[in-house]
Amino acid sequence: MTHSDQVLTVAQMRAAEQALIDGGETVTSLMERAGKGVADWVWRIAHGRSVTVLCGSGNNGGDGYVIARELSSRGAAVVVVAPLEPATEAAKAARETYRGTIDLAGNGGVLVDCLFGSGLTRPLSPELAALLSREAVRHSALVAVDMPSGIDSDTGLPLNDGLPVNDVTVALGAWKFAHWLMPGMAAMGHRRLVSIGVEPVEGAATLLGRPHISVPAIDAHKYTRGLVLVVGGAMPGATQLASEGALRAGAGCIRLAAQGLHPSATPDLVLKRGPLVELLSDDRTSAVLAGPGLGLDETARVKLGEVLAADRPTVLDADALTLLRPRHCEGRSAALVLTPHEGEMTRLGEAFGIEAGSRTERALQLAEAAQAVVVAKGPDTLIAAPGGKLTIAPPATSWLSVAGSGDVLSGIAASRLATGADAFTAACEAVWLHGEAARLAGPAFTASGLARYVSEAYAAAL
């Protein structure tokens, strides 16, 4: 992990800053570094336009005074709007170094929001909320420094209604959860990161990056590359979509345990009839996928029980998540990956007795309760593992909001698991490949169209 991919809570960020101070930095030196880094971005964004810096009373406001000073020194037309007097020593010192204009209103152009930073946990006062909204309307571009004022940094939840949407948010030191979690993520605009020297924090969440996937070994064959058994059910279309995703994500062979094939099924699928227990006992099976198209009847319940009792590396999605109960996970030692969307997360929370909490808290609790890697799907997909390990995926294209795309993801995850990756790595690789395939597919694709781009996404990770 590097400083550029870690995602910190407010408490972790404060501890990281304190570690820098203990090592010889000061609040003022960190403020200078942050303000100058943001000023570089604002200078480029403004591109000759005037700049208004909205400064609050804390150290985020102090950053604003440094930004204003730096931009003024470069010849930009800068106005500071300061509805609150500086309240910290560093902010007071930063204000003293700014010799430019302080006014009651901005001058158009670019608005830089330095009212409040990542530590805000209460709503903006009506007066400050109105000021922020009024200035946002009067300016042609809006840049938030560290965190848009009025958004909770740890949860991404807005603390006020009607907050403006930023064009750019410049994070300081490290990413915060709200930069990548809905609904706050929708107000960030483009995200940029300014380093202030923060070191990697042990146990921190990370941002999902491009995986490094290897080509098959020179002596590979279909079984050493991995065999996925996809368990079919009442709706063969969903099962086929999952199989299509699995076929293109690295495994050497995909078997379908079903009574028949969908009319449009690819000849690359190997249909296997017969008792599921016998198919699961084949030692060549590297991973099992159940859920897409499984159904919710008694036959489906029996199949799910047999799959989990076989204790093979397993991915569960869709109907299997609705049927899953804590007893199914007892006594298992093999890897288990769950891929719920928000509705399925709610049902799993009820089944596993998960306490209410933020989305990240619920994903981590479910991972612990089920002893599984949880891929909480959505525009802000989370990958959580037992022990508190957490990765957040940058947002993929919104064209993924199409029926069947989750089936394709589950197939990719099963394929990566079959190749020998551990559950967390397989889940992370699958989420990245899924998002990259969607990017390559362009707009208005179908789930089957998405599956066809998984091979190209795979190539991009080699």
Describe the structure.
The chain has 462 residues and is of the alpha/beta class. It has two domains: 6-202, Rossmann fold, CATH 3.40.50.10260; 227-460, UDP-N-acetylmuramoyl-L-alanine:D-glutamate ligase, CATH 3.40.1190.20. It contains 16 helices and 19 strands. Strands 8-1-10-19-18-17-16-15-14-11-12-13 form a twelve-stranded mixed sheet, sandwiched between helices. A seven-stranded parallel sheet has the order 4-3-2-5-6-7-9, with helices on both faces. The radius of gyration is 25 Å and the shape is elongated. The model has no long low-confidence stretch (mean pLDDT 95).
Q: Could you say what the CATH topology of the largest domain is called? A: UDP-N-acetylmuramoyl-L-alanine:D-glutamate ligase
Q: In total, how many beta strands?
A: 19
CATH architecture assignment of the largest domain: 3-Layer(aba) Sandwich
Number of domains: 2
- Number of helical segments with 4 or more residues: 16
Structural class: alpha/beta
Radius of gyration: 25 Å
Beta-strand residue fraction: 15-25%
Low-confidence stretches: none
First and last CA, distance: 20 Å
How would you sum up the global shape? Answer: elongated
The first-level CATH class name of the largest domain:
Alpha Beta
Order of strands in the sheet with the most strands?
8-1-10-19-18-17-16-15-14-11-12-13
Q: Average pLDDT across residues?
A: 95
Largest sheet: 12 strands, mixed
CATH homologous superfamily assignment of the largest domain: Ribokinase
Helix content: 25-40%
